[in-house]
Amino acid sequence: MGAFRLVTCLILLLGLGGVAHAERRVALVIGNSAYKSAPLLSNPVNDATLVGGMFKKAGFDSVDVKLDVSAADMRRSLREFANRTRDADVAVIYYAGHGIELDGNNYLIPTDATLETDGDVLDETVALDRALFAVESAKQLRLVILDACRDNPFARTMKRTVASRAVGRGLAKIEPTSPNTMIAFAAKAGSTASDGDAKNSPFAAALVERLPTPGLDLRKAFGFVRDDVLKSTGYKQEPYVYGSLGGNDVPLVPAKPVTVGPQPNPQDAIRRDYELAMQIGTREVWTAFLAQYPDGFYASLANGQLSRVAAEEARAAAADKARQAEDEKARLATERAKKAEQDKAAAAARAAEDAKLAAEKAKQAEEAKATAAEQRRKEAEAAVAKALADKLAAEKALADKIASDKAAAELAAKQAAERKTQADGEQKIAAVAPTVSQPGMSAQETAKLLQSELRRVGCFAATADGDWSASSQRSLTLFNKYAGTKFDARLASFDALDAIKAKPGRVCPLVCDRGFKADGDACLKIACRSGYRVNDDNECEKVQEKKPVATRDESKARDEQRKQVESAPAKPQATGQMFCNGAGCRPVRSGCKLVPGGSGAASGDGKPRAMMEICG
Known about the structure:
Blueprint: H1 2-18, E1 25-31, H2 44-57, E2 62-67, H3 71-84, E3 90-96, E4 99-102, E5 105-108, H4 120-124, E6 126-127, H5 128-135, E7 141-147, H6 153-157, E8 181-185, H7 202-210, H8 218-232, E9 240-244, H9 266-280, H10 283-292, H11 297-422, H12 426-432, H13 443-456, H14 470-483, H15 494-501, E10 516-519, E11 522-525, E12 532-534, E13 540-542, H16 552-567, E14 578-581, E15 584-587, E16 592-602, E17 608-615
Parallel strand pairs: 1-2, 1-3, 3-7, 7-8
Antiparallel strand pairs: 4-5, 5-6, 8-9, 10-11, 12-13, 14-15, 14-16, 16-17
Helix pairs in contact: 2-7, 3-5, 7-8, 10-11, 13-15
């Protein structure tokens, strides 16, 4: 009995010693949901409201809850909270919202931040070091809780001004330098936290459940929070705590004091021990109670309680086995259903893949057909276009030739008329025609320059000799015709020279003689293939063979000659006598004779005679 009472007294003394004087505890709670440049976060405001209410129920002396604060409001709130922590024993800051890590440093993001570039982080956010500075004055415990490890949309859209600058996923690991300082992350450094599907995040719900437990050491409380979050998130999110505390327990809420009254008799002491064991209710406590009080009324009650505990443990073990069996059964059923679903999905995937391959093959076949049809269409269009182009080229060449021949004929006729009209007075005009020359240049030099320019533009064919004769005047007249000018052809003037110099190429058309055709600035002889000749239109035409037609006088003379030959006695023919005509020479045929007056013959000596062959 003495040992059990000693343990009880020690517990009471420790409890009384822990509350010998009241601790001053202050808290600042910030929740940001309505971001102006990012999608709305549903939980931070709810989480901040829930955690703030938890601090108030836990008996904190001062709890400030700030919702959807801008950068200026956040800095002002931290500054005011730093003033309140100077006389506080415990200072706690809870922040829920977006956070960001830049080059190994952590920053809290207010609702009015835009963060278009990485340089804006320093101007538009609040560094985590500022929050650590605000709790630094607390005497016993400095605690910063960050529920800010969410997937940050600013990091995805932010422009990097320096390529090597690192913008992390989640928050960076931090080691506080001040003693008795703890920093709790909703998720381990470098990972992100979940908002969850409920009104509050899994981290905030676990905090409210575990931290207010009276007398529970913070390290153990955050261990329970870690276990709760891991379990609720399917082991995807693991909270983490950085920093260290001393060897003594540091609860956020002190243990409630136990009042002990005077003990009038030993039964009262046994009763109190029984009641204390009743509050704990474990097998170990009842075993200790029976070891201390093996006999008596309360011993019987303790045995009954121990039996109840044993029955409860047996029931719990059986229930646990049943639950495990049900879980195993459900797991096996799930696995079978999952396997069936997987087989079904695999079959569907294979069917879809086969259909995809068939569709791709059909598409390729159709594309090949379309390509072949398109190729045939292009080839047909090209053939039609080529035939049309050849036809147009032939028509154009024919039209150009007809126009050129017509122009050449007209020019030849006009030149002939001009030569006829100017032939009589040519020498007279040449003698009296004046020449306009430039001061400092003779009339002959001016005429020679004008002749050279007329020759360049194709209007003058002779050599430039400075003699402004009738041929030179006709050349200037020809230039007036084709250039549309009206210079006096009798004068070799500088106005005409300037006008001709202004023409870059040929003005007068090239006129070629019969049997030649114009090719640029030269006349080329027209070459016809065998059996064709050049006609009067400078075109190749087929030679028509014409049979000679004898005139009436020639027929009459030939008849009279034949009669004379027939009436004359026949003369013997010399051996080797030959008959020659335009087709060549051959021996005289049998029964035929040569008479004078033929188209040609040759005797045996090879001398030509005017003979003709007459056959009887």
